[in-house]
Specification:
- By secondary structure, the protein is of the alpha/beta class.
- It folds into 3 domains: 145 residues, 3-Layer(aba) Sandwich (Rossmann fold), CATH 3.40.50.300; 32 residues; 98 residues.
- It is built from 15 helices and 9 strands.
- The strands form 3 sheets. It has a 5-stranded parallel sheet with strand order 2-5-8-1-9. A two-stranded antiparallel ribbon has the order 3-4.
Amino acid sequence: MQLPNDVDATLDLLARGQYIADRSLATAVFLAIKQRRPIFLEGEAGVGKTEIAKVLAESLGRRLLRLQCYEGLDVSSAVYEWNYSQQMIEIRLAEAEGVHDREQLGTDIFSERFLIKRPLLQALEKDLAGPPVLLIDELDRTDEPFEAYLLEILSDFQVTIPEIGTVRAEEPPIVVVTSNRTREIHDALKRRCFYYWVDYPTVERELEIIKLKASATSEKLSRQVVAFVQELRNVDLFKVPGVAETIDWASALHQLDVIELTPAAIDDTLGVLLKYQDDIARMRGSEAARILDQVNAEIAAGQPGA
């Protein structure tokens, strides 16, 4: 499928993948694709950053290459490593055949057929369907040396392999970098990307998301769920629920045949919405009932979710 040629087309592209985006987000995505620059998406966990890369790959018919970041991630896991066992077999076979040209043998065993390609190197390869979508997910989980290694890839779309040379993409991949901001990412990396802060959705947009992703949920319950979650995000919790948790909660309530949100239904399902026991203990009982009363009053008055 062809790349979008304007912001409206980008909105349509994301919508086809059931992603409801703000126009400002669609603008950032369009510019990143058009100008062949990585897009750096920062925001709280669960607001839909990773989903953008998945939707782009699916809607464009491109391959999705995902590099899930973690502490200690290195080049051998992210870019490439040599197939040492196969290299040793090749050396033994050469010795058995009486090959004594060590220089030629060294060239042979450090050729591409012994190279194990990881996501970052795979993203530079030519693909008949078009350049892939490369997702570098939760970059803030890695350490600074690996972050520095990415600079060459994100600026020049190339990787230097000492034994082979420089591998450069004929056509740059679509690169999406995400961060939950558990630590600050260095300015040198951010300068190579277009930046966008993905915030929690408004009441109206989150309700629209629920209607799309949990369509079996009744209208009244959807409004109550969204309004309740929106209120929770104003409470000082260890981890407030993201959009993913809102969708899961609405679906879970529907599976339990809940038609209308009640204090009992909330207490029974808080583990779907909140992921820390201290938060659950704080919200269970009278506090959840108080927020629900406030939500119902606001909906009745034609305010949030109405």
